[in-house]
Amino acid sequence: MQPYELPLAAAADAIRARRLSPVELVDSVLARIEEVEPHLGAYVTVTAERARRAALEAEREAARGRFRGPLHGIPMGLKDLIDVAGTATTASSRVRAGHRAQADSTVAARLTAAGAILVGKTHTHEFAYGLTTPQTNNAWDRGRVAGGSSGGSAVAVASGAATFSLGTDTGGSIRVPAALNGVVGLKPTYGLVPRHGVTSLSWSLDHVGPITRTVEDAALVLTALAGHDPRDPASPAAPAVDYRPDTGTDLTGLRIGLPRTYYFDHVDAEVEAAVRYAIGRLEALGARLVEIDIPMTRYVQATQWGLMVPEATAYHEGTLRAVPELYQADVRILLEAGELMSAGDYLRAQRSRTLMRREWARVLEEVEVIAAPTVPMTAVRADERTVTWPDGTAEGVSDAFVRLSAPANITGVPALSVPVGHDTAGLPIGMQLLGRPFGERSLLRVGHAYERTRPARALAPVA
């Protein structure tokens, strides 16, 4: 096994035991980037020399017996919305050409302090305003979409071009590409991970979180990321938490909600079968399945768009008027549409969210975790714009991808996407676990328990 193939936890153990040096690991990942990047397009920029210098310093620290923690010497990719001092933050847009960050974002600073090593900035759908990331190819099939908007981050991890990465999630942008590329994606509770220094799409829906190969890896990264930051108005004053899950698989007594409504409507048959089989595995581990109804489902799409569109337009107001031609057409149209929405529309979306949060809190009193598909179908071909369901209903690809992930953004509850197999075309399928606010430990416990019943997952077979 090459070092780049190691999951984070295994690499951390090897570094601490001095069986692997940070230099060897970083060099292996950089060589993997050179191998796969021409086929995948996951990175906006690769910071190879910076990474090698940091790896040498991490190796010197290790030789002195100084380990910063499980992220010591671990190569990471950061979505190119996340500021790193002295490095461009382009948001994959011509609007940001020539921009360089003056200071680290909170998350970049925390990961660096924990010993992680930046190997590059990963592609996003322009300004995170989309669900496909057209610059990047799916790690399992280059002719299919990577998902978005954190497509580069997910593809980098799935292909071994990063040991872990960070993405952002406003309507599913961590979980969607994680599911489509067969990796783990965690959208934490709103505010748990600070967003200072991260380019916003929609401030009341934005989240930052890890994309990893295993649930244990996600817990290790979350432990380094979470914590109060007074520069983020949504950041709660909460104590530090170690999110690493227990090694056991016993879920006896845990109540898992099985949706009767919404989450299995208009879902591909193979996706539904794989997710229901995975839920059955959770039941076999002792969890008790409780059928639930998802509240206010008819308002999900209108509420998501009613919040996101005007907030995005407000953020881009100056550049949209000054240099509209520099935006990609799909993003510019959405930003211009936001100028047509009234204050009343936005206030009604806020009221809807308030009601939705209240109703979801009631459901989550009955169960600790809800299990459902992450996305309704596997990765579509890059030229596909719509999907037609067996009953004849046609749906835009982006609308389909966001449909099952948006409720967690609207309500702010944590959500974890875990790979649960592949369809007959060999494309990954993801199961989504949703939990109570600040209930990440329960989500990670369930995801980790499921993962331990499955054989180890291989990296995507990039040709």
Automatic annotation (TrEMBL):
Superkingdom to which the source organism belongs: Bacteria
InterPro entries given in the database record: Amidase (IPR000120), Amidase_CS (IPR020556), Amidase_dom (IPR023631), AS_sf (IPR036928)
Keywords, in A-Z order: Ligase
First-tier enzyme category under EC: ligase
EC number: 6.3.5.6, 6.3.5.7
Segments forming domain Amidase: 24-444
Gene Ontology molecular function: asparaginyl-tRNA synthase (glutamine-hydrolyzing) activity; glutaminyl-tRNA synthase (glutamine-hydrolyzing) activity
Organism this protein belongs to: Streptomyces griseochromogenes
Designated name of the protein: Amidase
Pfam families: Amidase
